[in-house]
């Protein structure tokens, strides 16, 4: 129901060519309380008056000399074709009633009329008109404004931006897009009431920190837009961006406490006047590109649009379109990287790796297209093809003389949705007649942690078929011991990030040792990926890692190349290691003359002597050889002796470590001693007899500590030095 004040204030136009009728109706309506009544004696002026004043009701006489009421009705229809304009027709000709209603009149009353009846009809027509106007206004507001925040929505923002740019809004204008990260997680955790409260507070903060005259809108579920006008330079947009960033960095207040959300910001600056080459919509598109880049840069990222960014966006768009065609056109292929048993050096299987041979571009790096497959959801159909292709290849190899070896296939988290991967695997195995034990699925830790209950059911079903399960990139995701207990897993794969410096970085070495011990303790096979050097291989072998894969043995091979490798019986040549009971001494000094002097001095004592001119080279030697005693110079380029021994102590704690130094450097030496990094410390120049005797004592101490003294031959006798060298001292 419309309020009485609104009803009596409605705009009414009375049209009649008789002055007396106009005065009568004006007095009658005024007496009833209507305050906005206009009279007109010329029917030709009605349309112009209505365009100017937008009347809520027109009382129209049909019979007028200059223009009939029917012609007026026809012209009014053209002005307000989609609206509801009440026209009350007055006529002394009752026969005109049907024709008037068909022409667009909302009501008809014959002259002479009953005054109360007329006022009642006027009231009813105005009531409907104002209800319609109110509903229409509300509908327009719903179509143009966000009901939660009261801000304009994307549709109104786009129209307002277009109008502002056409009118001109200064030398430069900028569109700032703000995206809240974690809103869905907040809704799922605390409910939509909390999420709505955060959005309202965000809208209020943007309104408070935006410059005067800025247009603010909510253009997406978690996205807001600001139009900044009148900018003299692009740098002028920095101040509003900083204010917005500071405002959103503050916690959002909720009934049960406070919470913070990360926000990414994308900004595009352009001419303040829209032109054919710079439409207003371009600013919004560019700001969206910058926002996406800011979100990729990390939490709370802020990014200004650049032309290079646009080129990357276009390239990404082209890449995505090409990816959608790649599967249909058979552009994908599988390569196979061998897995080698460390203990035997024999190939024990392979990992199937997806490759894309894009026409006109050649092989595309997996790091370029696989993340895009996951983002677009194409990973599901492509993953299905990979499983089927791997099974087809297994069946083909099974018919050859060397037989088939197990092949592992990577499975993305999206493939677990709805348990689809179980059906895909079962169908591929049955279609190609492959033994389930020849297929392994490698899944990352993060892909297991979505719907854990459903994932467990799927993995249990796959294991029941006989398919093997491996955790890929172990240690880089959740690394939860609980899921290793509950998930049916057969193997752990150590990520290349830990293998790369395993022979020189104590932290990586400790993690690798822990993963190997954990895997073997749970009865799992442990595979190291990305093995590229002999030192990595020897380190892993000494830690009893089961298998390796990496460029040290072979890069990924085509199906034919892998088959040739098997036909030729290729395997990993393991260098012969020195016996564990052989006394091995490592000498480290960056001066070759000192190394030569030490080798000449100590060779007659029967040790296996290794020498190195740098700490990095020494770490490589330690990874490949079992060394009991290390003799190292203190002052070396790149890394001092105590720094070197700090690393050795953590990776090879059983070794006995001796420093030789021509400088006292008591602080660093004492620190190393106190931390257990040093066994002995000697000053240069040394006494040959004393040094030889102490090194022999060091070896004796080592064998006693490790319970091998009884089984070891007696320490080699001290061999006299050639004449003239017995009392020689070396001066560095």
Question: How would you summarize the topology of this molecule?
Answer:
Blueprint: H1 4-8, E1 11-15, H2 19-31, E2 36-40, H3 46-53, E3 57-61, H4 69-79, E4 87-91, H5 97-103, E5 107-110, H6 115-144, H7 154-167, E6 172-181, H8 183-190, H9 192-209, E7 215-220, E8 223-231, H10 238-249, E9 252-254, E10 257-259, E11 262-271, H11 280-296, E12 302-304, H12 307-326, E13 332-341, E14 347-358, E15 362-364, H13 366-376, H14 379-398, E16 407-411, H15 420-432, E17 439-444, H16 445-448, H17 452-465, E18 468-474, H18 481-486, E19 491-494, H19 496-499, H20 506-521, E20 525-529, H21 534-542, E21 547-549, H22 559-567, E22 584-588, H23 592-602, E23 608-612, H24 615-624, E24 629-633, H25 641-651, E25 656-661, H26 666-674, E26 680-683, H27 688-705
Parallel strand pairs: 1-2, 1-3, 3-4, 4-5, 11-12, 14-16, 16-17, 17-18, 18-19, 19-20, 20-21, 22-23, 22-24, 24-25, 25-26
Antiparallel strand pairs: 6-8, 6-11, 7-8, 9-10, 13-14, 13-21, 14-15
Q: Tell me the radius of gyration.
A: 43 Å
End-to-end Cα distance, whole Å, is: 105 Å
Poorly predicted runs are 709-732
Q: β content, as a range? A: 15-25%
Structural class: alpha/beta
**Mean pLDDT over the full residue set:** 86
Quick one: how many beta strands?
A: 26
Strand order of the largest sheet: 13-14-16-17-18-19-20-21
Task: Note the main sheet.
Answer: 8 strands, mixed, barrel
Shape: elongated
The count of helical stretches stands at 27
User: How helix-rich are the residues, as a percent range?
Assistant: 40-55%
């Amino acid at each position: 129901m419309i309020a009485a004040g609104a009803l009596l204030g409605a705009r009414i136009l009375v049209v009649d060519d008789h002055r007396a009728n106009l005065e009568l109706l004006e007095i009658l309506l005024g007496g009833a309380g209507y305050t906005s009544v206009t009279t007109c004696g010329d029917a030709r002026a009605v349309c112009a008056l209505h365009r100017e004043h937008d009347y809520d009701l027109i009382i129209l006489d049909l019979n007028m000399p200059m223009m009939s009421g029917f012609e007026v009705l026809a012209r009014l229809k053209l002005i307000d074709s989609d609206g509801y304009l009440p026209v009350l027709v007055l006529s002394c000709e009752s026969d005109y009633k049907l024709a008037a209603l068909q022409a667009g009149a909302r009501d008809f009353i014959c002259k002479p009329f009953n005054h109360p009846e007329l006022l009642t009809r006027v009231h009813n027509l105005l009531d409907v008109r104002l209800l319609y106007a109110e509903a229409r206004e509300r509908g327009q507001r719903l179509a143009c404004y966000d009901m939660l925040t009261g801000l304009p929505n994307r549709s109104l923002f786009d129209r307002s931006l277009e109008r502002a740019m056409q009118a001109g809004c200064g030398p430069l204008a900028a569109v700032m897009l703000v995206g809240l990260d974690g809103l869905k997680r907040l809704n799922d955790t605390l409910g939509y009431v909390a999420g709505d409260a955060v959005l309202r507070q965000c809208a209020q903060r943007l309104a408070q920190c935006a410059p005067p005259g800025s247009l603010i809108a909510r253009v997406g579920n978690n996205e807001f837009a600001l139009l900044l006008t009148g900018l003299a330079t692009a740098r002028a947009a920095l101040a509003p961006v900083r204010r917005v960033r500071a405002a959103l960095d503050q916690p959002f207040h909720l009934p049960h406490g406070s919470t913070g959300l990360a926000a990414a910001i994308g900004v595009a600056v352009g001419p303040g006047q829209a032109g054919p080459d710079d439409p207003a919509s371009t600013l919004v598109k560019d700001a969206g590109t910058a926002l996406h880049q800011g979100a990729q840069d990390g939490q709370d990222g802020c990014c200004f649009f650049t032309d290079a960014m646009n080129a990357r966006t276009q390239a990404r768009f082209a890449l995505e379109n090409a990816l959608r065609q790649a599967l249909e056109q058979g552009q994908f292929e599988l390569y196979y990287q061998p897995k080698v048993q460390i203990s035997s050096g024999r190939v024990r299987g392979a990992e199937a790796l997806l490759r894309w041979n894009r026409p006109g571009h050649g092989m595309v790096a997996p790091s370029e297209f696989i993340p895009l497959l996951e983002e677009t959801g194409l990973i599901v159909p492509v993953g299905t093809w990979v499983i089927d292709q791997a099974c087809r290849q297994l069946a083909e190899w099974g018919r050859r003389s060397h037989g088939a070896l197990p092949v592992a296939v990577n499975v993305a988290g999206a493939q677990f949705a709805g348990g689809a991967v179980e059906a895909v695997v079962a169908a591929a195995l049955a279609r190609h007649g492959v033994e389930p034990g020849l297929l392994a699925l490698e899944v990352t830790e993060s892909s297991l942690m979505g719907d854990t209950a459903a994932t467990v059911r799927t993995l249990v079903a796959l294991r029941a078929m006989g398919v093997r399960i491996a955790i890929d990139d172990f240690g880089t995701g959740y690394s939860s011991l609980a899921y290793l207990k509950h998930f049916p897993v057969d193997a752990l794969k150590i990520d290349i990030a830990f293998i790369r410096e395993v022979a020189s970085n104590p932290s990586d070495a400790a993690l690798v040792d822990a993963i190997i011990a954990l895997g073997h303790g749970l009865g799992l096979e442990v595979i190291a990926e990305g093995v590229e050097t002999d030192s990595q291989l020897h380190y892993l072998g000494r830690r009893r890692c089961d298998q390796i894969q990496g460029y040290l043995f072979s890069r990924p091979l085509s199906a034919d190349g892998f088959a040739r490798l098997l036909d030729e019986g290729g395997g990993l040549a393991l260098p012969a290691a020195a016996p564990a009971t052989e006394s091995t001494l490592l000498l480290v000094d960056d001066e070759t003359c000192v190394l030569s002097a030490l080798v000449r001095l100590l060779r007659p004592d029967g040790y296996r002597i290794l020498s190195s001119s740098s700490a990095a080279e020494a770490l490589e030697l330690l990874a490949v050889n079992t060394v009991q005693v290390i003799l190292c110079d203190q002052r070396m380029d790149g890394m001092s002796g105590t720094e070197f021994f700090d690393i050795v102590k953590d990776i090879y704690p059983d070794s006995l470590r001796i420093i030789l130094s021509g400088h006292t450097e008591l602080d660093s030496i004492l620190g190393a001693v106190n931390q257990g990094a040093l066994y002995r410390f000697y000053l240069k120049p040394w006494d040959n007899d004393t040094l030889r005797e102490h090194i022999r004592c060091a070896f004796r101490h080592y064998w006693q500590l490790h319970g091998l003294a009884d089984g070891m031959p007696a320490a080699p006798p001290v061999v006299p030095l050639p004449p003239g060298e017995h009392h020689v001292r070396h001066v560095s």
